[in-house]
Amino acid sequence: MKFSRTACLKGEIAVPGDKSISHRSVMLGALAEGTTQIRGFLSGADCLSTIACFSEMGISIEQKEDLVLVHGNGLRGLKKPAKVLDCGNSGTTTRLISGILAAQEFDVTLTGDASIQKRPMKRIIEPLSQMGARIESLAGNGCAPLHITGTALRGIHYHTPVASAQVKSAILLAGLYAQGETAVTEPYVSRNHTELMLSAFGADIRTQGTTARVYPGRPLRAQAVTVPGDISSAAFFIAAALIVPGSEILIKSVGVNPTRDGILRVCRSMGADVTLLNRTDGPGEPTADLLVRSGSLKGCVIEGALIPTLIDELPVIAVLACFADGETVIRDAAELKVKESNRIAAMTEGLRAMGADAAETEDGMIIRGGQPLHGAVIDSRNDHRIAMSFAVASLAADGETTIRDADCVDISYPEFYADLRRLTRS
Ligand code: S3P
User: Fold this and answer.
1) Predicted confidence (pLDDT) per residue in 240-294, tens digit
2) Do the beta carbons of residue 326 and residue 369 sit within 8 Å?
3) Ligand 1: residues within 6 Å at CB?
4) How confident is the model over 39-63, as pLDDT tens digits?
5) Distance from the CA of 163 to the center of ligand 1, in angstroms?
6) Per-residue pLDDT for 156 more than 80?
7) Which of 1, 194, 388, 399 could disulfide-pair with 375, CB 3.0 to 4.6 Å?
């Protein structure tokens, strides 16, 4: 797909529902008693993989216009699937579902696409095995396909080496079935959607600092869930409006949970003009409208506890950094190498092809802003966030940019290019 410079971005947009929250609403809905109603569900390929897996396990799920109904069967109501569960490209599906499957009374094999079969699963196999789970990586490489034989679990207190909501969530979901307390302590707090939603569904879940604890014994009760707009999708429009001079856009109803809002803090450090309007605060997930106006940006350092709060936004933050004065340093972000692609390599190589001064480091990137960008041929590596990041970069670059396998955006944002076209002015 081809892209070129735009004069500016103007107008209003509502981004699709949050991917992380959409996954969790189907999972908890399936394990709850009663019918969970989900509004604002993200119908991207990843979340559809989660629906397919639970449908395969006997859960009736109705997808209507703007409503998904999940007819839950209770914590013990899943059935052995007739075939291998296919998690597609979705790390969230693979890891979270493993925590649930570890405690069922049947065995199951789950797998996914070529990318999923390379992503590290030892990070969940290790703690779940400590709880008593029986999980085998069929290729013996610590990756999917995984064969999981459900069994009785016991609670543990696990200290995760990396801040990962997928790991934390897999353990907490297994903890719903385990004997005694299950606790997870992270080096920094990762997104807390599982904790918030478990609490809303009636589970006994408590959090303090970087530790979350869950206790078994309470049934989950169906809920009405409203999924806020995905800040990770909004990030592409935030960046586009900031780097294309003369732009002003309003992004409606975006989730601004503090465990996800790192991009807003980076915008502040860079001196960007982003204003939060109509903020709604809890219970549950806070939202706000984001008013974004272009302007000058300055480089900044992004590290430590901030990293998990913007982990999926780092590719597009790298694009922003190319348009900031001075140096932007991203460190403590080695996790980017084990996402849908190696996002450090994908971004630094692609940005350099466009003329940027971008260097790869062990655990991040160093970008010196101010070099004018020009069009190039970019390999998306079939990674949705890489494709969208370069589509944004191309809007402020000379000449034409070609993005290969651009349709991989279907994973999280099927309408992305149409929405981007609606906002751009020639
Ligand atoms: C997610 C957590 C993050 C994120 C992913 C979605 C989730 O992964 O990158 O896109 O829904 O829990 P990690 O928890 O592995 O960092």
Assistant:
1) 999 999 999 999 999 999 999 999 999 999 999 999 999 998 778 999 999 999 9
2) yes
3) 20, 92, 164-166, 169, 190-191, 311-312, 335
4) 999 999 999 999 999 999 999 999 9
5) 10
6) yes
7) 399
Instruction: Kindly give the distance from the C-alpha atom of residue 394 to the centroid of ligand 1, in angstroms, as a whole number.
Output: 27
Question: Could you give the CA distance from residue 152 to residue 131 in angstroms, rounded to a whole number?
Answer: 9
pTM higher than 0.85 for the full model?
Answer: yes
Q: Which of 270, 409, 396, 252 is nearest to 327 (CA)?
A: 270
For ligand 1, atom 11, name the residue with the nearest CA. 20
pLDDT tens profile 314-359: 999 999 999 999 999 999 999 999 999 999 999 999 999 999 999 9
- From 22, 46, 50, 164, give the residue whose CB has the most ligand 1 atoms within 8 Å, as the site to mutate: 164
pLDDT above 80 for 197: yes
Output the pLDDT for position 425. 85
Q: Tell me the Cα Rg of the chain.
A: 21
> Which H, E and C letters describe the chain, residue by residue?
CEEECCCEEEEEEECCECHHHHHHHHHHHHHCEEEEEEECCCCCHHHHHHHHHHHHCCCEEEECCCEEEEEEECCCCCCCCCCCEECCCCHHHHHHHHHHHCCCCCEEEEECCCCHHHCCCHHHHHHHHHCCCEEEECCCCCCCCEEEECCCCECCEEECCCCCHHHHHHHHHHHCCCECCEEEECCCCCCCHHHHHHHHCCCEEEEECCEEEEECCCCCECCEEECCECHHHHHHHHHHHHHCCCCEEEEEEEECCCCCCHHHHHHHHCCCEEEEEEEECCCCCCEEEEEEECCCEECCEECHHHHHHCHHHHHHHHHHHHCEECEEEECCCHHHHHCCCCHHHHHHHHHHHCCCEEEEECCEEEEECCCCCECCEEECCCCHHHHHHHHHHHCCCECEEEEECHHHHHHCCCCHHHHHHHHEEC
Which DSSP category does 225 fall into?
A: E
- Residue from 97, 124, 190 whose mutation best tests the ligand 1 pocket (most atoms within 8 A of CB): 190
pLDDT digits (tens, 9 = 90+) for 1-41: 999 999 999 999 999 999 999 999 999 999 999 999 999 99
Q: What is the pLDDT of residue 167?
A: 98
Point out the residues that are catalytic. Answer: 312
**Which domains are seen in the chain, by residue range?**
2-16+228-425 (3.65.10.10), 19-226 (3.65.10.10)
